[in-house]
Every structure is written in structure tokens, then in C-alpha cells.
Specification:
By secondary structure, the chain is α/β, with parallel strands linked by helices. It has one domain: 4-Layer Sandwich (Metallo-beta-lactamase, Chain A), CATH 3.60.15. It has helices at residues 36-48, 63-66, 69-76, 87-91, 93-99, 172-183, 202-208; strands at residues 3-9, 14-20, 25-29, 52-57, 80-82, 113-114, 120-123, 126-132, 141-145, 150-154, 157-158, 161-162, 191-194, 200-201. The strands form 3 sheets. Strands 1-2-3-4-5-6 form a 6-stranded mixed β-sheet, with helices on one face. The protein has a 6-stranded mixed β-sheet with strand order 7-8-9-10-13-14. Strand 7 and strand 8 form a beta hairpin. The mean pLDDT is 96. The structure holds zinc ion (ZN) (2 copies).
Length: 213
Amino acid sequence: MIKVKSFVFNPIQVNTYVVYDETNECVIIDSGCYFDNEKQELISFLENNNLKPVKVLNTHLHIDHILGNTLLFEKYNLLPQAHKQDDFLLEQAVFFGTSLGISLDKQPPKIGKYLSDNDTVKFGNSELKVIHVPGHSPGSIVFYDEKQHFLFAGDVLFNGSIGRTDLPLCDYDTLIEGIKSKLFTLPDDVIVYAGHGEQTTIGEEKSSNPFFN
Ligand SMILES: [Zn+2]
Ligand SMILES: [Zn+2]
């Protein structure tokens, strides 16, 4: 049985998720902690619950989603796992951060393992399926729990919105098509844990998201 703990971190208010099961192994999705108190909050949660981080996962590599990767690498020796097509964003991270008022004192860790569509990410007794849904970024992926019916959508799909497509290598039509064909074909009761804002469900977004209605 998977449990999900969420945090809201950094000036861009990203949702960071710690996902764990009865074995106490956990994965951390989009570690966005930036300020010292945020880093402390994440580490305290892991330590107080005796959780063992085994993977650092990224839905995509925009700066707000990767700010905590350095901490997790230094403390747990875990390199992030993400889609290859977002690699270029890492090189731009320091520059992109500065334009948003976020200063990075060093280059974020490189990707340790590339994830592709249909891959399975395992931890403890659990697994998440990787679904590639490009458009917000070329390498955007979501992590789907087929058994418990929830997914981590990153900036692909939000409660009442979709990811922005005005950044380099974004594409609006690709994003809309990907959501329709790869996410809206999942069961209606699938809970969507988005990269920003409140959680929602596939059924709710299918029936009321203004981009599709
Ligand atoms: Zn993004
Ligand atoms: Zn974001």
C-alpha cells in the first residue's frame, strides 16, 4: 500500500512528493526544496518516519522541480532519474533560475538514469509506470500507479488547467493530444497529484477542465 506525503516548496510553489510503502523504502518526486527550512522539513520527514530514499524522480527538469536534487545527491548519493529529452534544461538551469530570482550556487546533479515511456520504476513492494506526455517540455513524464489509481502529473495537467507551452521546445497541440490519448484514457477515479496546486482526478478534468470543454 503506497502512501503519499506532499510538500509545497520554493518561490514557485512546486509540489514535492515523498512516495513510500510498508517496506519504508521511498522515492522522492520533484524535490523542489530551496530554502534551508524547506530542506530541513524534507529531511526531518524522511528521518522521523524511518524512510529510506531509493530513487529521486523528476517529472521534468524545469528549475522549480529540481532545486532539491543537490541535497538528495549529497545526503543519499542518489542521482535523479528523468527523460533524456529534458537534459538540455539542466544546462540552462542556473541561467533560467537567475531570471526567476532563484540563485543556484552550483550546477544541479546530472541525470543518473534515463526513463522512457512504459518503463517501470520499482521501490519496496511497489511500482510506478512511466508515461511520456511531452508538450510542456519535450521530456515530460508522469508516474502512474495502476493498482491504486493515482498519478504524479508534473506540469502536464493541473486542477482546472494544463502546463504552459510558451517556453522553448514546448508545444501546445502535442500537450493537448498527449493528455487526451494517454491520460484521459485512464479510469475516471485516478487521482492526479499535480506539480502545482490542488490534486484532482482524471474524471474531473475530463468533464470540467476549460482546455477540453
Ligand atoms: Zn514545468
Ligand atoms: Zn513547475
